[in-house]
Amino acid sequence: MAVERSDDNEAGGTDRAGTTAEGPDAPEAPDPKIAAAVAAAEAAGPQSGESVRIDSWIWSVRLFKTRSAGATACRGGHVQVNGERVKPAHSLRVGDEVRVRQEGRERIVIVKRLIRKRVGAPVAVQCYVDNSPPPPPRTAVAPAGIRDRGAGRPTKRDRRELERLRGLKEGSRRNSFGGPGKPNSAG
To answer: How is 124-179 classified by DSSP, letter by letter?
Structure first.
């Protein structure tokens, strides 16, 4: 049997010390480690009036693994700033919309903070607003033809079952290489 106490601090009331509890709409206090990393990133960032290259920025906020991969994507036309394809040396400003096309997915981000040095993922997320559509759901496909390690060489029956699972025609393996067996239709 639960007894309800009046000093419980569930609904945002005041506790005995007179402080108010944070409700669900109250902002979370930043983690001190993240706050220190953000401060370090801002200190290493460009001073007022300086700019940041697009290839450097997309690498710094972890949209690409390497800066050279970001530069290659820029040269290939996979990076757009405010709707225009850009070169790797294009200077970026706060408020620019950056579209990055990679691995069959388009990432749309708006620049909130300019940084030059690569930072950790929690800090990198604070440097942009992600307006990307959600990634397509992954389809669960059972791997066809995976054998247990140490199971030995497949028998002829096992091989036929694997070919059936993979969708191969039964006699296509031998004839496609022109090996001994039935001659090809040219014959």
So the answer is: HHTTEEE-PPPPPPPP--PPTTPPPTT--SPPHHHHHHHHHHHT--TTHHHHHTT-
Produce one character per residue of 32-45: b if its CB has 16 or more CB atoms within 10 Å, e if not.
Answer: eeeeebbeebeeeb
As a whole number of angstroms, the distance between CA 22 and CA 146 comes to 53
Convert 89-124 to b/e letters by CB count within 10 Å (16 or more is b): ebebeeebebbbeeeeeebebebebbbbebbeeebb
Confidence band of 12 (pLDDT split at 50, 70, 90) = very low
pTM of this structure: 0.56
